[in-house]
Amino acid sequence: ATSRLLVNYPEPYRSEILDYLFKPNFGASLHILKVEIGGDGQTTDGTEPSHMHYALDENYFRGYEWWLMKEAKKRNPNITLIGLPWSFPGWLGKGFNWPYVNLQLTAYYIVTWIVGSKHYHDLDIDYIGIWNERAFDINYIKVLRRMLNHQGLQHVKIIASDNLWEPISASMLLDPELLKVIDVIGAHYPGTLTVKDARLTKKKLWSSEDFSTVNDIDMFITSCFGVSLTEQSFRTIAWNLVASYYQQLPYGRCGLMTAQEPWSGHYVVEAPIWVSAHTTQFTQPGWYYLKTVGHLERGGSYVALTDGLGNLTIIVETM
């Protein structure tokens, strides 16, 4: 719920903010947009509405996430879209406050969000998560994969478990079917090291949430750039996109940029926008880190990326 005030910005300021975030070769030039699947629950800085308040209710125009995804796609048609539930409406738990009571029902709930995104907004969701920083259920992940396939959504890949490297990695190694249905292991704030089990899965390893500190240059480089330098993380996703909520709320001013005054149109393009640009403006999804990375004798570090076709980008920082 961190982009809540953005939708209320008047033009031209709202479009300017969106350009700084998503427009290629302009600002942050983001390659990925990960959104919350609203669940009618408070999820840090507010509550995002569910598309299904109850079992027989479906509405694909609540909230602002579909609007945000369309604005991102308008600027960058190739941007990767990811959906992740932070909370679930209570009716799914049937009084137990637990989304895994009826695995088929919860999987259906998530799949309807993906199908509705396409049907009503022409948005193709590329990846889907399980449950933000909460327990995963092995059987639920398998049911979700089967239901996605049944709906013709074989292209939608599964990220798990948006928490730590373990126990999901060990669970995958012990269960061949689970290993098969999970496409990406996503860890939050993994620091500079993965774990052996995660590497043994041979899956893509992402820092699927990172940053969440005041948006100055030192903190952003330390949290996000450091992961890339040490582990050749394929993707790093910074939380949050834009600090467009009141600063007195938790994690005030912890976005890539700050836009918390729609009444005045004031916004601030913070340093993380330009730190991101050093990678995003000179690479594309599918590029990978070379192992020729390291530290400079008098401070600073460097990484190198390639598309495997002869194009090379070297990024140097001296902070």
From TrEMBL:
Full protein name: Galactocerebrosidase
Active site: residue positions: E133 (proton donor/acceptor), E209 (nucleophile)
Reaction(s) this enzyme catalyzes, per UniProt: a D-galactosylceramide + H2O = an N-acyl-sphingoid base + D-galactose; beta-D-galactosyl-(1<->1)-sphing-4-enine + H2O = sphing-4-enine + D-galactose
Domain Glycosyl hydrolase family 59 catalytic: 1-281
Species of the source: Cervus elaphus hippelaphus
InterPro entries, alphabetized: Aldolase_TIM (IPR013785), GH (IPR017853), GH59_cat (IPR049161), Glyco_hydro_59 (IPR001286), Glyco_hydro_59_dom (IPR035394), Glyco_hydro_b (IPR013780)
Keywords: Disulfide bond, Glycoprotein, Glycosidase, Hydrolase, Lipid degradation, Lipid metabolism, Signal, Sphingolipid metabolism
Organism lineage: Eukaryota, Metazoa, Chordata, Craniata, Vertebrata
Family: Belongs to the glycosyl hydrolase 59 family.
